[in-house]
Design goal:
binds iron/sulfur cluster, Alpha-Beta Plaits, 23% helix, 8 helices, 343 residues, four-stranded mixed β-sheet, Ubiquitin-like (UB roll), 15 strands, N-terminal domain of TfIIb, 4 domains, alpha+beta, three-stranded antiparallel β-sheet
Amino acid sequence: MDLVTLTIDGQKVTGPKGKSVLEAALDAGIYIPNLCHDPDLKPFGACRLCVVEIEGMRGLPASCTVTATDGLTVRTDGPKVHQVQKVAVELLLADHPMECLTCAASGNCGLLRVASHVGIDHIRLKKTQRDYPIDDSNPFFYRDLAKCVLCARCVRACQEVVGVGAIDFAHRGYQRKVATFGDRPLAESRCESCGECVVRCPVGALVPKRRAKPSREVKTVCAYCGVGCGMYLGVRGNTVVSVRGDRQSPVNHGLLCVKGRFGNDFINHPDRLTTPLVRKDGELRPATWDEALDVVASRLKEYPGDASAAIASAKAPNEDNYVIQKFARAVMGTNNVDHCARL
Ligand code: SF4
Ligand code: SF4
Ligand code: SF4
């Protein structure tokens, strides 16, 4: 791997070639305030919070848009930098609802983190408030644009990562906002409810409807389809309350689709089958697997050849699906084999 070495706040920092100054600093444990940066997205330079001084460069470049190269000398904490960051944060806070105690992003809010880092102790500007209704049309998450800081992480994630492009910026100036085509509710847009925008929103503008925070996490693999995305289930007691993608998984690098991210209510659902049911005297009653398989085997004999069909599962491994089609063709005598590619 090609490496570059630069100096940040007097400290020699070595990192892989091609990264930005901001990423080189963050990787080295040097925090530079930022809101629009996301390691999965192209640099955007919208929030102007990651400005730095770089020897030989005019002005205060946004460190997310400057490639880290050998010999750069960067200063992150000069008075000019601090002044720009302070004004940028004050402008955001002046227009932000003060609902921190009840906000779903509380404890994990990017805006509070930058405000605290910059050292804001009061807001000098006149308080304003955008009056947007909360969009709760999506079954899995809320969209509260009054809290939006216009970082564009949701827009870029939807375009660059998911490839859907359900949202984009609309209008200009103070009216600028994230909108669907025609400014319709999310449920009436092209949105696929994958939640990739939700996990990237640095504030409480996009938040899951399920609010409970987990007390521990369990590393696992999504049970829905053969892609096998890595994930962490957030658990509270014995109840699954959250899901997050495993960024270390070589399969999905942290990304999840709507099923993996939001389709896990079945795990703790009271109607979930935990034992086979066999109909006796017109009623479904719990049975052992041996009893259930005996019933299936005896009934299959009543439907020879193409009178029957086998439906496999995308949740099962390839080997199990192979065995099912082999069983259908060789034992049941039918080529009627299908599987639920999409659940
Ligand atoms: S949930 Fe997914 S598809 Fe919908 S807007 Fe967000 S990123 Fe786009
Ligand atoms: S909704 Fe969230 S992610 Fe999207 S632009 Fe606003 S603050 Fe950024
Ligand atoms: S259902 Fe979605 S999250 Fe689960 S393994 Fe398949 S693609 Fe990944």
